Amino acid sequence: MSEFRRSSFKSPGPSRAPTPVASRYKQPRFAYQDSLEVPVSRSHSRARPGRTVEIPFTDPINRQANLNKVPPTGPLPKSEKDGIRDGSGEETSENARVWHIYNDEAHRADTLMTDGWSRSIDVLLGEEDKSSRYQPTELFQVFTGLFSAVLTTFIIQSYQLMLPAAADTTNVLLVNLIALQFNSTEPPSIPSGPQSTNVQIHWVNGLWFSALACSLSTALISMLAKQWLQAYLPNVSGSPRHRARQRQARFMNLEAWLVPEIINALPLLLHVALLLFFAGLVVLLWSVDLAISLATWIIVLFAYTFYFASIGVALLNPACPYQHPIADRLRLWLSPDPKSPPPPIFVSNHKKQPFEDPGKYIYDARASVATFEDAIDATALAWLFNKSTDQAVVSAALQAIAGLPRDFSALRILRDAGALPLIEHGFQNCYHKDTTVDLQWHLVDAESAELYCRAWMRLTRGTAEQWPFDIVEPLWMLQDDTHPDAAAIASCAVALSSFDSHMSQWELLAYLARCTAGETQLSETTQCCILDSISECLVRWEMPLVVIEDTAVRAVPVLLRMLHLTEDLPNSKVRSAAALALYIVTCGEAVDLGLYMSEEKRRREYCELMIEALSAIVATPARFGVHDALLDIVGAELARLATPIVAQSERSSLSALYAAGRIAQGNVPDSVLADVLHLLFPPALTQPQQSVFVTTLIETLETSSHPDITNWAVRLLEVLLSRCSLAVLQAFVESNGINAVVRAARAGAVDSRRLQIDSLRTMCAFIASTTREYKTTPTSHPTLDIHIEALLQSDFFDTLCSIVASRRWWLFEVSGHWLPAIVELCRIRPDAKVWLNVLKTFKEFAERNVGEDGYSETLSHLEVIKKVSEEDSTPVSAVEVSGDYYK
Which domain does 176 fall in, by range? Predict the structure, then answer.
């Protein structure tokens, strides 16, 4: 039983492969760059049961011209802030409404954030805040003032205990004087209280000086933080999206550099300073009075027990009023928010990150490598729908995802931020679920539902995500909506979740057919969405061959009509999308859809795709349901591609003009001449034209120093000299071609290693053709003797030996291309003086490449040269020359 594959489209013909049994399905043929292909379960289709599709037929040639041209994109709405919706597909353009909303929300959030931080810093610095209603700063001024005064007083007293006191010396002298007056050998005893040891004094001073350092450090860092906050809110001009990107970049850098953590940690320094002061006080009193020391220690212990308990309660219960920055930070560390998007500094790198859930992703060439601009846009939208509490703002951010470009590279950020379940919830909110009678759904907002559908498709493109079953009934209801764009988008969502149902894909073709017939009007965004969905369905289908071929008969006429209707819009995205779909359905190639996400890529390869697709249709038009008027469309489209086709078919004319000197240096720019030589490679010339062409190439080599011209001229000479006629060899020698190519080889030593290889190959081709002519000519050959003598008298062998000795070459290149021709030349002229240097140079080269491919062949060639040059020093005749190199 034959395997049915989409690659069968590649060989069109009248015969058709036998239809396989219905239980066998083709393998998925999609290929995405850096893809991760996994089996996807499609056991539950989202296609609506019992839905039928009719694709209307319309002759596009007989219809009124330009009846349904793709409408150009109009100007954006003026009143974006008033809630007027953006144009279809313009939801994230430069002046889109979502960026106005983002800027307003960000301004309010940044104002509250910076004002809160600024007031907190003012409290730490003891500055007066007259804008505060309750004036809490005055209380803190009293606290910081009392703390500074008490700390300074205690430090002054404790520091004096570390210095030698003059009063102590005086007291000792007085005691000794009294003892002398009383003629006593022992001084009288002086009553004294408890004394602190030197160790305790040092501990006390260390703790209190550390407390003073903490308080002063708090003031220094607070002043720096004030400057950071002033730099965070600069005045930025430009479009709304530019201002949003600038703000989001500053915000992400603010978090990446831990500025919030630093500012929130400033009060901790004062808390630490107070703790150090209490610790020093307890140490000081411990040896003086135990009761007072215990009382002080109990009070301090109670205060800090309450301090740490308040942090613990706030950590366990976020609703507790005992809020503290430490509790907030610990809560983030212990249970990080999965919806928080990573900063651009982490997502803009080019290292591939592994997928957390391989079964969730089929292909996604854009999941790991995100451009900086796309990462900023994604994090801005994620910040908006995660941080805002206004449902209208969240809806606007989620709906804006529908307007992201096809090649948006940061969709992974939005998926990781939790956008997909929010979009599904927002889509559900566009309906009213009547629970009184049979749980019926009633559509409330069709336009919002369409935006949510497009956003869902944008996020799930290239993943194994399918539309949730619990809201599939509202999706079917949207398919029946009177608004054609909303119904078509809903059908796209159904088709992308129903790869095992061809009817859902045929319904997309029906929408395009009605659009080309003038029965309905669809926006350019909707048409592109339908065409992209068709391409993905065609690539990922798992259908029997008979269904695939039936689809080709239905799809090709519709796609041709789409191309006909957009003939006046060469830059239309619809045209490039239709060309890609037509190529997939006609040629059946394994297309890497990840490469065609970019519109620039599609337009760059538009001609190539169209030529192959239209050629396949012309070969077997009946196979694709193309006849009569549709063939006229194919002819018109091929006529528009005449320029690249003529460039390939008119090479003979270019060759004649170049050989005649009409296209030469001075007549055309060097870049144009290089392009012409590139276009003429490989040359397609008759025997009489080759000699003139070689002469012109040698003139070009001698007069031009342009690297591209030199490269292509040498490559053309190599092809022309390979197994050429005697006339071509004579033209090459008489036009000084040997010296010109040798000069190019020397230039390659500085400019291009590739030029060296091509030059040596050209010379070896000349030698091979000369020796072949020498062996096949039964009579004398004075012309060939002149050619060989000119070669031996030139600098070729010196240049060859210097090139071989100076660089490391691929040994197979030497043994397979260079030495065989040189061996045959040695057989003809074994008495030449060059062979000794050749043997020495190539022998040393071989010794540097022992064991590599071509090593044994190189030694064999060198052994032949050595044997021939040593045994016979006289020229041999053509009859005596033997060898199987040219057989």
Answer: 102-288
